[in-house]
Design a protein that fits this description.
The protein is an alpha/beta fold. The protein has one domain (5-207): P-loop containing nucleotide triphosphate hydrolases (Rossmann fold). It is 50% helix and 14% strand. It contains eight helices and six strands. It has helices at 16-27, 42-47, 49-73, 90-98, 101-114, 131-141, 151-166, 187-197, and strands at 5-10, 29-32, 81-84, 123-128, 172-177, 204-207. Strands 2-3-1-4-5-6 form a six-stranded parallel β-sheet, sandwiched between helices. Strand 5 (172-177), helix 8 (187-197) and strand 6 form a beta-alpha-beta unit. The longest helix is centred in the N-terminal third of the chain and has 25 residues, at 49-73. The two termini are 19 Å apart.
Length: 208
């Protein structure tokens, strides 16, 4: 791969974990995945967001920090690159969407302390999908606690990602419209993803 550290991002249900696994397995990459099932506050958050939003976001930020800190500490000479299915900055994106003003302020203080010490991806591939496709994917994968996620919530998160990316002029970010793509079943679609990740991109937000 052209880039040493690749991040696959997307809204809930976009297929980022599946794609990251495929790339790592085929191309001998080191894989870093979020462990959603380990967050004890997540099922409660989907039932009562106001009550559980702060602990759920703190837990996710701590877990993401631990994964990326380990990346710095453990070089793997047998892997050609690293691919993750999360961007650390998503902590801030979700927190700003989910938390009350006073909680968001405290969360931002913690984020700003941690963020500068962590490695940044060489490129971020954002998997854009319409809300209808996200909902279909969520239903298909069958996590009980996700089945009641409203379309409005997904739309709000996706819009928050896009607004954030527009401001990141010093990072390589490629937004890929996946509306009519299925890299799990289509070799053509999967090869297209690899082609994008092997292309030379300048800093800023690019639409594909």
């Amino acid at each position: 791969m052209r880039y040493n550290f690749i991040t696959i991002e997307g809204c809930i249900g976009a297929g980022k974990t599946t794609l990251a696994k495929m790339l790592a397995e085929e191309l001998n990459g080191k894989l870093i995945l979020e462990q959603f099932e380990d967050n004890p506050f997540l099922p409660g958050f989907y039932k009562d967001p106001e009550r559980h939003a702060f602990p759920v976001e703190l837990y996710f930020m701590a877990e993401r920090f631990q994964h990326l800190r380990n990346l710095l500490a453990q070089a793997d000479i047998f892997k050609s690159f690293t691919v993750s299915d999360f961007l650390f900055q998503k902590s801030l994106i979700f927190a700003q969407n989910n938390l009350k003003a006073d909680e968001a302020k405290l969360y931002r203080m913690l984020f700003d302390i941690i963020n500068p010490s962590l490695p940044k991806p060489d490129i971020t591939l954002y998997l854009y999908a319409p809300v209808e496709k996200l909902l279909a994917n969520i239903k298909k994968r069958g996590r009980d606690y996700e089945q009641g996620i409203p379309a409005e919530y997904l739309e709000g998160i996706q819009n928050a990602y896009l607004e954030y990316f527009k401001l990141q002029t010093n990072a390589r970010i490629v937004l890929l419209d996946t509306t009519n793509m299925n890299w799990l079943e289509s070799k053509v679609d999967y090869e297209r993803v690899k082609e994008i990740l092997n292309a030379e991109w300048s800093a800023g937000l690019h639409y594909v």
